[in-house]
Amino acid sequence: MAKSTREIPEAYHDILESKCFPHVATIRPDGMISNNPICMLWDGKHVRFSTTKSRMKYHNLVADDRVALSIPDPANIWRYIEIRGRATLEDDVDRSFINQVARKYMNQDEYPFDRPGDERVTVTIHPQQVSAEGVNPDYNDGKIPEDWTKG
Q1: 138-149: per-residue pLDDT in tens?
Q2: Number of H helices, E strands in the chain
Q3: Integer Cα distance of 151 and 148 in angstroms
Q4: How far apart are CA 99 and CA 17, in angstroms?
Q5: 120 half-sphere exposure, CB direction, 13 A CA radius
Q6: How far apart, in Å, are the Cα atoms of 58 and each of 2, 42, 61, 123, 135?
Q7: Cα dihedral: 114, 21, 51, 67 (round 10)
Q8: Which of these CATH numbers, 3.40.1190.10, 2.30.110.10, 2.70.150.10, 1.10.3720.10, describes 3-136?
Q9: pLDDT tens, position by position, 45-101
């Protein structure tokens, strides 16, 4: 069973520092959930990602700042962390944040895929609940039982 906290357990910092591909869930105007893969950076306290003002993620977060992230370990998808919280939005006028993301995920100094006129926004997640398998000491130290990995 996963344990819940507001702090991101140190045992999971490696996932957040990796080239992981989280899925971010936002709430659409009709109440349905929208779930999309993202690239992200972690500053030691907050997960941050970039979007544009034309994207549904942006419009969803402007209307309702509640957000959830599911972040699997790229080396072991059964090991993951989930973060629920609130999002704040900040314009990335000079594109410094999206360029940091491009350096991490693409090994490029500048993000190459924006269209003319795209307005970039940095989304910062403020954790209210963090869940992770293996945080509970009764859960096998976060290791997957051998019989789960056999086909």
Answers
A1: 444 545 445 444
A2: 3, 8
A3: 8
A4: 16
A5: 20
A6: 30, 19, 5, 9, 32
A7: 170
A8: 2.30.110.10
A9: 999 999 999 999 999 999 999 999 999 999 998 899 999 999 999 999 999 999 999
